[in-house]
Amino acid sequence: MWHQLIDKKESFKETSSTAMFGFAMTLGVKNGLLPKEPYAAASKKAWNAITGYINEDGKIREICVGTGQSNDLNFYLTRPRIVGDLHGQAALLWFTYSMLLDEK
């Protein structure tokens, strides 16, 4: 899982970014734009992690709300987390689709 702030381990593990990165890496590998290793293993790891964040209604949790800009680190570290927000749900669907595609 990628964190809400990717270079700050104290930030929470964020699902929409993990799904977007996983989607991009999966398509990159399957379309020959990225080398299979290390990217296929990284996207598989992201997939295995993110599936644990989907509830029984198919909604994904740990989505950071839309965020503006600030010079204050705490502004980002305290962003609310929501369940089922469409930008997280859409990223999950993209990632799911990419995992189901056959390699070229």
Write the layout of secondary structure elements.
Layout (H helix, E strand, L loop, with lengths): L14 H16 L5 H15 L12 E2 L8 H5 L3 E2 L3 H15 L4
Antiparallel strand pairs: 1-2
Helix pairs in contact: 1-2, 1-4
Question: How does this structure look, described?
Answer:
The chain is mainly α and 104 residues long. Helix content is 49%, strand content 4%. It has 4 helices and 2 strands; from the N terminus they run ααβαβα. Strands 1-2 form a two-stranded antiparallel sheet. Helix 1 packs antiparallel against helix 2 and helix 1 packs parallel to helix 4. The chain is globular, with a radius of gyration of 14 Å. The two termini are 27 Å apart. 24% of the residues are buried.
Notable traits:
mainly alpha, 2 strands, 104 residues, globular, two-stranded antiparallel sheet
Global morphology: globular
In total, how many beta strands? Answer: 2
Q: What is the makeup of the main sheet?
A: 2 strands, antiparallel
The SSE string, one letter per element, is HHEHEH
Q: What structural category do the secondary elements indicate? A: mainly alpha
Rg, Å, rounded: 14 Å
Give the termini separation: 27 Å
Strand arrangement across the biggest beta sheet: 1-2
Taken as a percent bin, the fraction of beta residues is under 5%
Mean pLDDT across residues: 93
Q: What helical percentage do the residues reach?
A: 40-55%
Q: Helix segment count?
A: 4
List low-pLDDT spans. none
